[in-house]
Design brief:
192 residues; mainly beta; OB fold (Dihydrolipoamide Acetyltransferase, E2P); 5-stranded mixed barrel; 11 strands; globular
């Protein structure tokens, strides 16, 4: 089942696990902890299209406060430092790295692995259903069992050409939730 992720519409707060960071209040010990990202009416939204062919897509990619979803990879930027968060309680509570108010949130590419089903090839473009494995973290977070992957003219293919049903691959690209379905515009697809 593909269900829309939980942030409010429009989203005003994200809780995320950091992969890296720089600036005031950032410590490497915080990277495995959650961070709270506040967004407001002046927060701007961008899509990092570097290396991703976004031309001629069969859907209109959207990324803004109403189209940010659990499971996407985002990079928040703040003009102020991270404020410290309180430590969690001794009985099962965890600590949070802190809170920032984002002046900008950028959608970044992410990777997903799975098995190809329903492959459709048309010239140098293709699309297929990527069936996610049962232990997929993305599947656990979103409830999605599959993602539609769109291969563009400029998508790099390594070891998986031609795209064939039953192949296990890793796809890397921009992930959108559109019309009740997850869709990835792939910058790279490779055999797993």
């Amino acid at each position: 089942m593909n269900r829309p992720p939980k942030p409010g519409r429009p989203a005003t707060v994200l809780t995320m696990v950091m992969q890296n960071g720089a600036g005031t209040g950032m410590m490497s010990s915080s990277f495995a902890e959650g961070a709270t990202i506040n967004m407001n009416g002046s927060t701007t939204y961008q899509i990092d299209e570097d290396g991703v062919d976004m031309t001629g897509l069969p859907f209109a990619p959207m990324f803004d406060a109403a189209h940010v979803f659990v499971g996407q990879s985002v990079m928040p930027i703040s003009s102020s430092g991270m404020s410290a968060a309180g430590m969690g309680g001794m009985m099962g509570g965890g600590s949070m790295a802190g809170t920032i108010t984002a002046s900008e949130v950028t959608l970044e590419p992410r990777g997903l692995s799975g098995t190809i089903a329903s492959a459709i090839t048309s010239g140098s473009s293709a699309s297929f259903t990527l069936t996610l494995p049962s232990d997929s973290a993305f599947k656990t977070m979103t409830g999605a069992t599959n993602v539609t992957v769109i291969q563009q003219t400029k998508t790099t293919i390594s070891g998986a050409s031609p795209i064939a049903n039953g192949s296990t691959v890793h796809a890397f690209g921009l992930l959108f939730f559109d019309a009740g379905q997850w869709k990835m515009v792939a910058s790279r697809i490779g055999s797993k």
